[in-house]
Structures are given as structure tokens and as C-alpha cells.
Design goal:
Layout lengths: L2 H27 L16 H18 L10 H6 L6 H20 L3 H4 L2 E4 L2 E4 H26 L7 E2 L6 E2 L6
Antiparallel strand pairs: 1-2, 3-4
Helix pairs in contact: 1-4, 1-6, 2-4, 2-6
Length: about 170
């Protein structure tokens, strides 16, 4: 398998499978009253982060790479202090992930080198996908931390027996 196809396949796997399973488990374990909780005014709630991830994936992949229209209000994603319940936020994000996967699935190695302008940045399609995958991972970690604060022991993604971190998150699918 060539490296370009490997990059496309792994990016799809992270966004469609691993991150999505971990995200759903963390959000579903979070008490309903904690979805819009913020530890302080400089921090974001899980609700903000879910809205932000949906906006980011849509702007960078669905629109920036795929060419769909985009009408993102990035500041509103962070300014909200309340909003939809977790299930609605998850459904919106998962729909966006489906659309992004359809865009990424159609890409070829040559497509990865094509130029785009996203958020005022001149980048390649490769850069856009790489950004979305790493950005999603960053905010997923924040969501997991908030869940662990509000629901200790409710989520568990790896088994450390035998000195190896065996993934158990796959069993949550």
C-alpha cells in the first residue's frame, strides 16, 4: 500500500472509528447537567467542544476540501453557555463526520497535494486532513478529562495487564 493511501485510510479510521467510539462513550457517560459545565470562564464545556468539532470538521473537510457551502460562526461555538442536549450535539457531529468521511474516501494521492484556502490559510488537502485529525484528538482528550472529573470510573479505553496497553475501546462499538 502506498503511503498516501495509508494516510487516507488511517485518517478515516481515526475520525470514523476510534475517536468516534471514544467520544460517544465519554459523552454518554457524562451526567446531563455537566454537558455545559465549565471549570472557569476561560475554559470550554463539552457542549462547546462538540459544537466546535462539528464546525471545524465541516469547515475544513466538508467545505474546504469537499467544496460544500460553509456558514460557520466559530466564535458562537465558544460563546454558548447552554444549548442542545448531548444526544443532539453528538448526532450533529456524527452527521458531519459521515459527510467528511465521504469526502476523504474519494481522495486520491494526487488530491492530497492540491491547494486550498481554509480559514485564510493557504494549505494542501493533506494539511487540512492532518489538521482535523490532530485537532479532533486534542479536543477529544479534553472531553474525556471532563467526563473523568464528573463520572470517575465511567469510561475505560485500555487494559494495562501484562505491561501492554490493550485497547478495549473497540468493545464499546
Amino acid at each position: 500500500m502506498d503511503i498516501a493511501q495509508r494516510f487516507i485510510d488511517r485518517s478515516r479510521f481515526y475520525l470514523q472509528t476510534e475517536y468516534r467510539i471514544k467520544l460517544r462513550a465519554a459523552v454518554e457517560a457524562l451526567p446531563a447537567d455537566a454537558v455545559w459545565w465549565r471549570p472557569n470562564e476561560q475554559s470550554n464545556s463539552v457542549g462547546n467542544l462538540l459544537a466546535h468539532l462539528a464546525g471545524n470538521v465541516r469547515q475544513w473537510i466538508v467545505s474546504g476540501v469537499g467544496g460544500a457551502p460553509n456558514a460557520r460562526d466559530r466564535a458562537a461555538e465558544f460563546d454558548a453557555r447552554s444549548g442542545p442536549a448531548a444526544a443532539e450535539l453528538l448526532a450533529s457531529l456524527e452527521q458531519t463526520l459521515e459527510e467528511a468521511d465521504a469526502v476523504i474516501a474519494k481522495l486520491s494521492a494526487a488530491d492530497l497535494a492540491t491547494a486550498r484556502s481554509i480559514q485564510g490559510r493557504d494549505i494542501t488537502v493533506f494539511d487540512a486532513i492532518y489538521h482535523v485529525v490532530e485537532h479532533f484528538s486534542l479536543h477529544l482528550g479534553q472531553i474525556i478529562l471532563i467526563t473523568k472529573l464528573h463520572a470517575p470510573g465511567a469510561i475505560h479505553f485500555y487494559e494495562d495487564a501484562g505491561g501492554l496497553a490493550r485497547p478495549v475501546w473497540k468493545e464499546l462499538a
